[in-house]
Amino acid sequence: MPDHFSPRQGRFIILTVVVCVAAGTLSGILGLIASLLYEPMLFYTSMDPSIAPYLAYIPQVGIYWGATSGLLAALIWCGLLWRRLARGQTERWATWGWKRGVLVGILATISLHTGLMLVTVWTTVSEMLVSTSVGMLFGIPAGAILGAVCGAICQVIVDSSVTNHTPLDPANGLDA
């Protein structure tokens, strides 16, 4: 990491914070939606009255677990972004962003549904596969769109740095 702090690094730090907040918020909302879908299914799959008091906590678990999954996925995406910047690879950010966004969207979706399944005590493999597959219908596009938008923002930052003649130097992190 360089000893000085440049305006360009500041822009990438702001981008990192924006990506993390956006992914955490979006994943928290999707986690709430997913948890609301799990709740009614419990009544049909389990007649055990001992779990009824715990049903009130499922939406909260969906929000918090979803936000945490999204935040962790965003941190992975941003880590890949910083690594690419450090290597001096700066072309086609939107394409790079959505491809990595799909991967971290899948990761966040699997993490969210695994957590919800543990809380709702589902035991059958078929129910796990169905719920995670349905979740992918949301997680993959969310990761792809967020990755493409943030990749496009990154492209603007890189292009503005190039027009300002601020070269990348992989030896010291981001800037010369």
**What is the typical, i.e. mean, pLDDT?**
76
- Indicate the structural class: mainly alpha
According to DSSP, the number of beta strands is: 0
Q: What fraction strand?
A: under 5%
Q: What proportion of the residues is helical, as a percent range? A: over 70%
The end-to-end distance, rounded to whole angstroms, is: 11 Å
Count every helix, treating DSSP H or I runs of 4 or more residues as helices: 4
Shape: elongated
Given as residue ranges, the uncertain stretches (5+ residues, pLDDT < 50) are 1-5, 169-176
Order of helices and strands: HHHH
Total discrete domains:
1
Structure explained in plain terms:
This protein is mostly helical. The protein has one domain (about 25-40, about 55-170). It is built from four helices and no strands. It has helices spanning about 5-45, 60-85, 95-120, 125-165. The chain is elongated and about 60 Å long.
Quick take:
With 176 residues, the protein is an all-alpha fold. It contains four helices and no strands. The longest helix has 39 residues, at 7-45.
Give descriptors for this structure.
176 residues, mainly alpha, 4 helices, 77% helix, 0% strand, disordered N terminus, disordered C terminus
Task: Describe the secondary structure blueprint for this structure.
Layout: H1 7-45, H2 58-86, H3 93-120, H4 125-163
